Amino acid sequence: MIRYITAGESHGPALSAIVEGLPAGLEVRPEDINSELARRQQGYGRGGRMKIETDKARVLSGIRFGKTIGSPVTLQIENRDWENWTVNMAQFEKPTDEVPAITIPRPGHADLVGMIKYGFEDIRPVIERASARETAARVAACTLSRIFLRSLGIQIGSYVSAIGPSGSDTVSAKAGQLLTDGADALSGNADSSCVRMLDKSEEEAAVAAIDKAKTDGDTLGGIIDLFITGVPMGLGSYVQHDRRLDAELAAALISIQAVKGVEIGSAFRNARRPGSQVHDELFIGKVDSPKRKTNRAGGLEGSMTNGEIIHIRLAMKPIATLMSPLHSFDIATLDTHLSHIERSDTCAVPACSVIAEAVVAPVIANALLLKTGGDHMQEISERLETYRKEISKRFRK
User: Fold this and answer.
1) Which of 274, 283, 229, 238 lies closest to 397, judged by CA?
2) Has 68 been labeled as part of a binding site?
3) pTM of the model
4) What is 3-394's CATH topology?
5) Predicted confidence band at 49 (pLDDT cuts at 50, 70, 90)?
6) Residue 310 is labelled as binding a ligand
7) Fewer C-beta neighbours within 10 Å, C or N terminus of the chain?
8) Where along this sequence does the record place binding of NADP(+) (predicted)?
9) Does 107 appear as a known binding residue?
């Protein structure tokens, strides 16, 4: 099974990740990882940090002659901004110059609770690890699982459906058209927009909303629609709570900084409708598999994949650092203050959509490996093809 951990601080020397459990024989190119890191850095509304960093992953282990060898893969991403933080983030010797402590927490951030939990007198250590900068390491690590899935015909894509007041609450008809060519086609189209929206008028409204928020010293969140195509029926399980695929997908997504809600299919709309208008009726298709005319379940039934496209929506809250700061207090003196200002983005929803694509990849990859088993790519590919053929036979008249 694939698992990964990340390490590193936002302004430390580097971010790193170790990925264990990848099968041997998976072809990996540096540009496959680095292109995803570049996608994560894009998006209208990003702050000054993205002008400093040019994220590229250095592979330190686990790959030989362009293929995985079954041992852990180690990845490292240097922080170019580290050269400006060698005093404030010194790792061993305390600087002779006084380093000012940050003691005024930001509402909506990990600052206050993290400081209390770990017994700090300064919020800086919390800021450094709670920062969404950590997701660069996650994107690098999870891209390896994404490459694995893509080699087996499974694609992951997304687009931004809303930023602040702009956008739509329904799935774009254009998204449905693009998904007929797979989720990669959807993501490729979304990437051509500076806010990863599919509708030009919605893009213009979102850009205007971001500009206004920046002028006001405010921030904006949004909604992301995520899709996974090519997934066979029967991944996941209903037999135990910790093997439910919908739970694992939701956990992966809500672990992303600032993501506060996850919806599978049209779940919230379904909650206000009678069952006759919710459940996707079954029909025998023309390609030896059951088909549904609707996909309100979002491709998951009984916590297992049902052969339809997996569709998940996630809600990202506005970033907690505001240039027009909110009311707070100094934890050292308990005096009233405006909250701390840390360099940040006005809107990071487009970047969040790329991160979301990444973090679901190991979840789907592990569900697939649990079904097929196998330690190298040829073995896994053959077993998956056999399983797909067995499904087809079950529904052949």
Assistant:
1) 283
2) no
3) 0.95
4) Chorismate synthase, AroC fold (3.60.150)
5) low
6) no
7) C
8) 40, 46
9) no
